[in-house]
Amino acid sequence: MKPAEISSFAPAKGAAGNLVNIIGKNFGEDSLLATVSFNGKQAPRIISYADTLITAEVPSGSTTGKISFSPASFVIGNKGYVAGGGEECWAYDPATDNWTKQAFIRNIIAGRAFAINNKGYFLTGAGGGGSTNSNYLNKEVWEFTPGN
Questions:
Q1: How far is residue 20's CA from residue 66's CA, in Å, rounded to a whole number?
Q2: Alpha-carbon span 137 to 77, nearest angstrom
Q3: Average pLDDT value for residue range 110-139
Q4: pLDDT digits (tens, 9 = 90+) for 88-114
Q5: What per-residue confidence (pLDDT) applies to 21?
Q6: Order of strands, edge to edge, in the sheet holding 112-116?
Q7: Full 3-state SS string of 67-118
Q8: Which residues of 101-115 are buried (b: 16+ CB within 10 A; e: fewer)?
Q9: What is the DSSP letter of 123?
Q10: d(Cα 6, Cα 14) in Å, to the nearest integer?
Q11: Structure-derived torsion over alpha carbons of residues 43, 44, 47, 48, reported in degrees to the nearest 10
């Protein structure tokens, strides 16, 4: 697994509600637990999502600044865990500079992740099964135990 990279975006300026194309690589093939932010404010909708192109809506109240893409992630012990790029979870070991595919994770949009007591938790967000329908809210929590 390679880290996601944003290379450009268009248009260069826009108001709330406008759509922005974010061009790059290694975004994955669907928006599992990923968020797009405009200067720290999360996009209200991801319109389309592909490995090299994301189209997202500019949130109200956003200002000029950094555009970022963030998959759900957490740290347990000396490894970082990242969900994204499909129904996958990956572990990164900085000691060996190696990525290892982990257990299946459900395909959810705009969720969050955290770790407590050596277990990771993915809280589901809006949509499901590749849907970007923000009116459909999931109420699921998935527990992840490294090595299982």
A1: 13
A2: 31
A3: 63
A4: 677 889 999 988 888 765 554 556 778
A5: 95
A6: 112-116, 119-123, 141-144
A7: EEEECEEEEECCEEEEECCCCCEEEEECCCCEEEECCCCCCCECCEEEEECC
A8: ebeebbbbbbbebeb
A9: E
A10: 18
A11: 50
